[in-house]
Each structure stands twice: as structure tokens, then as C-alpha cells.
Write a structure and sequence with these properties.
By secondary structure, the protein is mainly alpha-helical. It has one domain. Helix content is about 60%, strand content about 5%. Strands 1-2 form a two-stranded antiparallel sheet. It is globular and about 45 Å long. About 30% of the residues are buried.
């Protein structure tokens, strides 16, 4: 049985003023998951979402808008995990071992149902915590949120 992508209950509350499905920009819950995930990967922030609060499984595959970027997203996960573990790509055996833990080419997501999905959910959860800390209060308008999000993400990538 495939594992699911999860969103914490507090994610739904925090984004409650940004309506999912009613705007072109935020069509699916996966959009919110992706925003949290990218922030988590950029900041190397991760935590077990189930330990933070109650979670909801919301989908067990990459939605169509993200399928063309699925391998890139998985690559970012691999990069973050290798950096987190202090493993260089030159360390072929250690890299191969981590890849085998995270990837399963025969699964629908190409992620291992144990480590791969769990790690991705952990980065999405950590990214949400990082966003919430940087914003202070929940967003009320999508346009304002996206402008601040991009600024915070750029600062995280630049190491500021």
C-alpha cells in the first residue's frame, strides 16, 4: 500500500484565507504542499509531521501540474538529504545507499514508500514551520503571500 503525501492540520488553518480551487494560482492542496516543501528543502528544515500535530493524508501521487517536475523535486530531496547527512556526491557507496533508501522507480511517485515519502513530508512540515515563523501571522491575500514567500525563499537560498 502506497504512502500518502500529508499536510498537517495547522497548515489548513494557516492558509484558510487563501482559497484552494477558487483561483488559478492555487488549484490544489498539492500547491500548498509544494510551497511548504520547497521552503523546507531550501532551509534544510524538517520534522516529523505526525509528532507536531494531527495530519491529513491528501494524495498518493504527484498531481498533473507537477508530474513534469517530479524528478526535479525528487532530485532536490536527494540533494537536501545528502547535504543533511554530510555526504558528498564523490562518496559513491554512501550516495548509492541513500538513493536506494529514498527512491523506488516502480512506485507511482518514484519515491520509496517508507523513507522517500516520509522525508518529503518531513521537509514540507519543516518548511511550513519556517514559513509560519517568518510570516508571524497567517496570510490573508494570495498576492501578498507570494511576494513575501519569494523574498523569504531567495534569502534562504542565498543563506541570509
Amino acid at each position: 500500500m502506497a504512502k500518502w503525501f500529508k499536510l498537517r492540520e495547522d497548515v489548513y488553518e494557516w492558509f484558510s484565507n487563501i482559497k484552494v480551487g477558487q483561483t488559478q494560482q492555487v488549484k490544489t492542496l498539492f500547491d500548498l504542499y509544494y510551497l511548504c516543501l520547497m521552503m523546507g528543502l531550501a532551509t534544510k528544515s524538517k520534522n516529523n509531521p505526525s509528532e507536531r500535530c494531527k495530519c491529513r493524508d491528501f494524495i498518493d501521487y504527484f498531481v498533473s501540474d507537477y508530474q513534469s517536475q517530479q524528478n526535479l523535486i525528487i532530485g532536490l530531496l536527494i540533494r537536501a538529504e545528502l547535504e543533511n547527512l554530510g555526504i558528498s556526491l564523490d562518496e559513491k557507496d554512501a550516495t548509492k545507499k541513500q538513493l536506494s533508501k529514498l527512491i523506488n522507480p516502480s512506485s507511482q511517485t518514484n519515491l520509496d514508500d517508507e523513507d522517500g515519502i516520509d522525508k518529503m513530508n518531513a521537509y514540507a512540515s519543516g518548511g511550513f514551520d519556517y514559513l509560519r515563523e517568518k510570516f508571524g501571522s497567517k496570510p490573508y491575500h494570495l498576492e501578498d503571500f507570494l511576494q513575501r514567500y519569494v523574498k523569504i525563499l531567495r534569502e534562504a537560498i542565498d543563506g541570509r
